[in-house]
Amino acid sequence: MSLPDRSLIPFDRTTAAIGALYMAVGLWSFWLSGQILLALAGAATVILSSGGLWWRRRTLGRTPPLPSDDGHRPLT
Amino acid sequence: MLLAVVFLGPVALVGAAILLPFLIKWRAVPADVPHALSLLTLAAILLGAYMLGATVDSHVYRPARLQAELVGRPYASALMLRAYESGGFQDPYEQWTYRLDPATLATLLPRCRWQADWRGRHCSLFHEGDGRYYRSARIEGERLLIERYYI
């Protein structure tokens, strides 16, 4: 599930997909020449974007309930 | 590798730090994510984008152009690439090793100029150098080796 967002770094599957692309090409490059930096950047992108998504879901879970949900009758 | 991390990592972080205030102002990063996390993610994306471009250049574009210059056209594709080596600080060199399929090998073998040196007898497709640089294309077994040295 991804959170609806129009950000440049939305911290959802798009960001993770960029990281996965980096990792795929980076592993190919590592196999050919031993250069691991691109794969590392891809892994960091995937981990950080997952962290951002986790943070956003956690923040959404802490949204305070509406006044009508806490057992009190809303003021009219 | 270590050199790249030591130099490119801070460059990516500084670039991300310069970009991030603008992205926050334009609401291009989520407001509910800590800025430190956005900064690190942006740095990783920038570093990856640079490295992706450099990898495509060194593994796909540059060897294809060199093949076109040395043997007429890029006979071996990036999918045939089996090894890439580069190095040298003041005397940089690059070497690409391709594993050729039988059809491509059959196309290239008639163009061989057979030479013998300390490596044994091998097929030279092209070589030139003027003391400052040297570049060659040769076949060893099923492998096509493209080399470029700057002396």
Description:
The complex is a heterodimer of chains A (76) and B (151). Chain A is mostly helical and 76 residues long. Chain A has a domain at 13-61. In chain A, 61% of the residues lie in helices and 0% in strands. Chain A contains 2 helices and no strands. Chain A has helices spanning 13-33, 37-61. Chain A is elongated and about 45 Å long. The model of chain A has no long low-confidence stretch (mean pLDDT 78). Chain B is of the alpha+beta class and 151 residues long. Chain B has 2 domains: 1-72, no CATH class; 75-151, no CATH class. Chain B is 45% helix and 30% strand. Chain B is built from 3 helices and 6 strands. Chain B has helices at 2-25, 35-71, 102-108; strands at 81-87, 93-99, 113-117, 120-129, 133-140, 143-150. Chain B has a 6-stranded antiparallel sheet, with helices on one face. Chain B is elongated and about 65 Å long. The model of chain B has no long low-confidence stretch (mean pLDDT 90).
Question: How do the strands and helices of this protein lay out in sequence?
Answer:
The complex is a heterodimer of chains A (76) and B (151).
Chain A: H1 13-33, H2 37-61
Helix pairs in contact in A: 1-2
Chain B: H1 2-25, H2 35-71, E1 81-87, E2 93-99, H3 102-108, E3 113-117, E4 120-129, E5 133-140, E6 143-150
Antiparallel strand pairs in B: 1-2, 2-6, 3-4, 4-5, 5-6
Helix pairs in contact in B: 1-2
